């Protein structure tokens, strides 16, 4: 009897112990997509991907097999709710499919998620014709499709109440109420809004900005945002033109906005002189100060002081990340990649001056190694990428700013950069990674 009682108590103790120390939801979670337009290259090339960043685990949910599915169409971007129990995915529309916002419930058990499609919200009906010259993630053979609609650059407010995004090819910005699961008001447009990529609120969610992701698109649009109602309106338009020390710099084909604080943000420009209007624009990085709505070119190909441009930008810049007092720039001319041209791609790193954030000093460049160069040893600080790496497209930092992740859907790589020494901490080879989001 005593032995039996001891066994029962042991089982109860083990159960209580395991329950007490079981982690239902990991501390730091990243969601990402694999954005192939169809499943011809395998189901995992069109999928929803979840990472436990601290536990080093990940799970892939193909849209062809997802619980509550299947879901057809090309996924583009994902957003993770602050509670890490709900994710959202923008799913492209075309001739036969509507532009949608997918709501995916994440049921966590002992740190393992189960993804279930809970709802699909129509943003635009099928066969909605493009009204801008912008495009992003289509294959070259799809460029002639006049009915491709894409939802881009979604963000979610810190309280999880509002999800905001752009409809790139219909010149619209939208706000989605995550509680009522309905769109707020009518589409935000006008003021020359054309080819907007993303909808980026400032830290206090009182202002927002969007870009112009098309050739010769040299404008940034500034909005007032009411975080109580979700209503937003365009108030200012800033053209990326700067004249510093007699040198005129113009930027175009802007992709993302990264806020430094409530009144300053970095914006990137990807257009090279041999694209769009000849010799009109150059690859560059800018800061916009809302106090005067004035842009300042911080980095540009023509501003480099070295012979090979190591201390400036070398290619079109498509994203920035602010982490550990530094600015990380994703370089690689995306439009040239779509046109079948060589796009090497690299990540340049600059120190941000604490007293004047518009002053940047070059730190290093993480770039593809030559084929004849050997790969890094495990114990050395590595700033080399695989020789076939191209088009650094997206950047995202972890909330603690210890790491920056980089996607290149054109060369099928996901990178993890350690911001303490700007080394490549991990490299994943995976199909068409794009559209990631982190909550911690």
**Spatial ordering of strands, largest sheet:** 22-23-24-25-26
Categorize the overall geometry: globular
Q: What fraction of residues sit in β-strands?
A: 35-45%
Give the CA-CA distance, first to last residue.
49 Å
Q: Which secondary-structure class do the elements indicate?
A: mainly beta
Q: What does this 3D model show about the protein?
A:
The protein is mainly beta and 440 residues long. Helix content is 6%, strand content 43%. The chain has two helices and 31 strands. The strands form eight sheets. Strands 22-23-24-25-26 form a five-stranded mixed beta sheet, with no helix packed on it. Strands 3-2-1-31 form a four-stranded antiparallel beta sheet, with no helix packed on it. A four-stranded antiparallel beta sheet has the order 4-5-6-7, with no helix packed on it. β8 and β9 form a beta hairpin. The chain is globular and about 60 Å long. It starts with a helix and ends with a strand.
